[in-house]
Amino acid sequence: MRTRITLACTECKQRNYNTTKDKKTHPERMELKKYCRFCRKHTLHKETK
To answer: Domain 2-48 maps to which CATH number in 2.20.28.120, 3.40.50.2300, 3.40.710.10, 3.20.20.70?
Structure first.
Protein backbone atom coordinates (compact mmCIF):
# COMPACT_ATOMS: atom_id res chain seq x y z
CA MET A 1 0.00 0.00 0.00
CA ARG A 2 1.25 3.48 -0.88
CA THR A 3 1.23 6.17 1.78
CA ARG A 4 1.01 9.94 1.34
CA ILE A 5 4.08 11.94 2.37
CA THR A 6 4.94 15.64 2.45
CA LEU A 7 8.25 17.03 1.21
CA ALA A 8 9.74 20.09 2.92
CA CYS A 9 12.58 22.33 1.77
CA THR A 10 15.74 21.94 3.86
CA GLU A 11 16.68 25.63 3.53
CA CYS A 12 13.45 27.54 4.23
CA LYS A 13 11.48 24.67 5.87
CA GLN A 14 8.39 25.28 3.73
CA ARG A 15 6.24 22.23 2.92
CA ASN A 16 5.97 22.37 -0.87
CA TYR A 17 5.11 18.95 -2.29
CA ASN A 18 2.77 16.03 -1.54
CA THR A 19 3.55 12.65 -3.04
CA THR A 20 3.20 8.93 -2.32
CA LYS A 21 5.68 6.17 -1.60
CA ASP A 22 5.66 2.46 -0.90
CA LYS A 23 6.83 1.87 2.67
CA LYS A 24 7.61 -1.79 2.00
CA THR A 25 10.25 -1.09 -0.66
CA HIS A 26 11.50 2.26 0.76
CA PRO A 27 11.28 2.27 4.57
CA GLU A 28 13.79 5.13 4.96
CA ARG A 29 12.92 8.82 4.56
CA MET A 30 12.86 10.14 1.01
CA GLU A 31 15.14 12.96 -0.20
CA LEU A 32 14.70 14.63 -3.57
CA LYS A 33 16.08 17.71 -5.31
CA LYS A 34 13.02 19.78 -6.21
CA TYR A 35 12.28 23.41 -7.09
CA CYS A 36 11.33 25.61 -4.12
CA ARG A 37 9.20 28.60 -5.15
CA PHE A 38 10.01 30.42 -1.91
CA CYS A 39 13.81 30.13 -2.33
CA ARG A 40 13.44 30.42 -6.14
CA LYS A 41 15.99 27.65 -6.77
CA HIS A 42 16.42 23.88 -6.72
CA THR A 43 17.01 22.63 -3.18
CA LEU A 44 17.00 19.35 -1.32
CA HIS A 45 13.53 18.38 -0.06
CA LYS A 46 13.12 15.82 2.74
CA GLU A 47 10.16 13.79 3.83
CA THR A 48 8.30 15.15 6.87
CA LYS A 49 5.62 13.66 9.10
So the answer is: 2.20.28.120
Instruction: For the full predicted model, state whether its pTM sits above 0.90.
Output: no
The pLDDT tens digits for 3-19 are 999 999 999 999 999 99
Q: Domain ranges in the chain?
A: 2-48
Taking a C-beta distance cutoff of 8 angstroms, is the pair 44, 23 a contact?
A: no
Does residue 12 sit in helix, strand or coil? coil
